[in-house]
Amino acid sequence: MTGPTSHREVELKLRVHALFDLPDLVTLGAASNAEVHETFTMDAVYHDTAELTLFRWGITLRRREGGGDEGWHLKLPVAGADGSTRDEVRMPLSSGPVGSVPPELLELVSPLLRGRRVTAVLTLHTERTPRILSNSSGTPLAELVDDTVSIFHNGRLSSVFREIEVEAINPDDPASLAAVEHTAGLLVTAGAEPTTVSKAASALGPRTQLPPDVPLLPMPTPTDLAVDAIRAVMCLHVRHLLLADIAVRRNLPDSVHQMRVAARRLRSALATFAPLLDHDSAATLKEELKWLASELGAIRDTEVMQERLDAHAGELDDPADTERARAAIDPILTRRLIGARSSALAALRSDRHATLVDDLVSAAIDPPVVDAAFAPCDVALLPLVARTWRRLEKSADELTLEMESVIWHEARIKAKRARYAADAVATIFGRDMQKFASALAQVTEVLGDHQDAFVAQTILREISSHQETDGVTGMALGLLHEYEAEEEILDRVRFSTLWPDVRRIAHKAGMD
After folding, report:
1. Which residue in 248, 287, 247, 292 sits closest to 271, CA to CA?
2. Are residues 47 and 76 in the same domain?
3. Which of 20, 19, 15, 355 is nearest to 197 (CA)?
4. Given this model, what pLDDT does residue 370 score?
5. Are residues 385 and 371 in the same domain?
6. How big is the CA angle at 74 (ends 71 and 75), to the nearest 5 degrees?
7. Is 250 helix (H, G, I), strand (E, B) or coil?
8. CA-CA distance, 469 to 208, in Å (whole number)?
9. Phi-psi region of 99 (alpha: psi -120 to 50; beta: other; left: phi over 0)
10. Splitting the chain (512 residues) into consecutive groups of 10 residues, what average pLDDT does each group show?
């Protein structure tokens, strides 16, 4: 059976009335040629839970017959993009009949489904007339489809509407994207109405527009209750973790890092807000988040080390040493990466992870707070952020260039806790707190580079000790080890230069 394939789509949707006349797009300059293709029909059966879980997360899952791309389609939002850009994961029709969603697709969105049953919820019949818009050289830029959509519920026709979609042929081509924007603009001028709501969501009604299981909540003001801030922070990072979980399952770039960051931020929030939370509930969540971050850590750490060592090998004076070092490093770290990914995916598919996801969703919606959390934010939260700062300040003030690396690493851990605490409340307390959080981000970046230099040296010593490492390769690895040792000292100097300004910014943010 063919496995899932992914396709990035950039399209704009417009609603028009039944008698809408499509303007002459060639005359209006949208394209040099608009080739009309033969009208065809499609039948799409949309699948979701009884609660419309996927629709409420902005995800659609359908089985469509008819058209050149018929099959199972899972449409997912793209991080950082607007609603016009989505990733479509496809599988062939043979992957399953109506009502039997391919397990490969269900597995991708399992963090959002959380065990709920997925069934057919809607059938759409579409008559589609496509047009290919090309430039003067004959290169296709955009596809415009004119759809008449019939909605069937329980086998009966319930309504009909008309929609036009304009999709980029090549989402990576600026000319293709410009053609989509220009064409949509001309259609709006002619009376079409832009929409970001999918055909299926329109058919299913307002329930699809309800918030997902974990909503994005506004941050409170300094005089609002601390419990509202805790809830908003927890929802923000649980959402981040769930969406990054899907990205990890899809093996997207940077996805492991994003999921690990979300887990760390949640642990930090639980630690920062500890005096306002039920101890046992918070401790359990922290322990499970630590486990998750550890399972993901081997992937992320190996990725970072391979990229770093390959780059720094390029800084060696002799190109031959560069090649020898990379030839020794890459096979070992690549094997580690494959093993780490297999282990991490097994963890994400485990009952332990499923239980953690359920517990995090519950804690985000209804945080396990104690009575002290019902005080105003400026009373309850500022002292907690200041506490994380004081711990960092004490540790950082004692650092010297000659200290052992492990002591610098301990300061880095405290810096990350302080940074995440400041980040969590920065929107609440305004500009000075935001500057403080940014300053701490610089601290964690420098100390993170310092830790990476230390770990790189450890890995190079391990690789050098392998029996198959010959003398000239060992020499190349030794030169790279020396480079990393120098980088470690330089990072200590960079921190020492940065620290006085950070203390000044902390004072201005009221951390004294």
Report:
1. 287
2. yes
3. 15
4. 97
5. no
6. 125
7. coil
8. 60
9. left
10. 82 95 90 93 96 96 94 92 88 95 97 96 95 94 96 85 96 94 95 92 91 96 97 97 96 92 95 96 96 93 94 95 94 93 93 97 97 96 96 95 95 96 94 96 97 96 81 92 97 97 96 86
Length of the chain: 512
- Please report whether residue 59 resides in a domain: yes
Check residue 467 and give its pLDDT. Answer: 59
Find the helix or strand (DSSP H, E) in which 167 lies.
strand 156-168
Q: What is the pLDDT of residue 76?
A: 95
User: If we measure between CA atoms, which residue out of 274, 307, 271, 272 comes closest to residue 289?
Assistant: 271
Identify the H or E element spanning 134.
strand 119-134
Q: Which of 156, 149, 143 is nearest to 201 (CA)?
A: 149
**CATH code of the domain containing 313:** 1.20.120
The model's pTM is 0.90
DSSP, residue by residue, 392-450: HHHHHHT--TTS-HHHHHHHHHHHHHHHHHHHHHHHHH-HHHHHHHHHHHHHHHHHHHH
Distance CA 274, CA 230 (A): 11
Report the distance separating Cα 85 and Cα 76, nearest Å.
9
Which two tokens mark 266?
Answer: 């949640």
**How much is the pLDDT for 346?**
94
User: Do both 398 and 497 map to the same domain?
Assistant: yes
The pLDDT value given to residue 28 = 87
Other beta carbons less than 10 A from residue 485's beta carbon: 15
pLDDT confidence of residue 79? 83
For residues 275 and 372, the answer to whether their CB atoms sit within 8 Å is yes
How far apart are alpha carbons 346 and 353 in whole angstroms?
Answer: 10
Q: DSSP character for 316?
A: S
Spatial CB neighbours of 30, under 8 Å, sequence gap ≥ 6: 133, 179, 182, 183, 186
Tokens representing residue 305 in the block:
């080390």
pLDDT at 395: 96
How high is the pLDDT of residue 3? 76
Burial grade of 236 (CB within 10 A; 0-12, 13-18, 19 or more) = buried
Q: What is the reported pLDDT for 153?
A: 78
Query: Same domain for 470 and 385?
Result: yes
Residue reference for tokens 């996927």: 54
Taking the C-alpha atoms of residue 336 and residue 342, their distance in angstroms, rounded to an integer, is 10
Which candidate, 8, 249, 261, places its Cα nearest to that of 109? 249
Structure tokens at 371: 């009575």
Q: Which residue has the tokens 């642990």?
A: 267
Give the torsion sign (CA, 282, 285, 287, 290).
Answer: negative
Q: Tell me how many domains the chain contains.
A: 3
β-pairing verdict for 119-134 and 140-153: antiparallel
What is the rounded CA–CA span in Å between residue 421 and residue 447?
A: 17
Range of the domain at 419: 381-512
Give phi and psi for 179, each to the nearest 5.
-65, -40
What's the rounded Cα separation, in Å, for the pair 416 and 419?
5
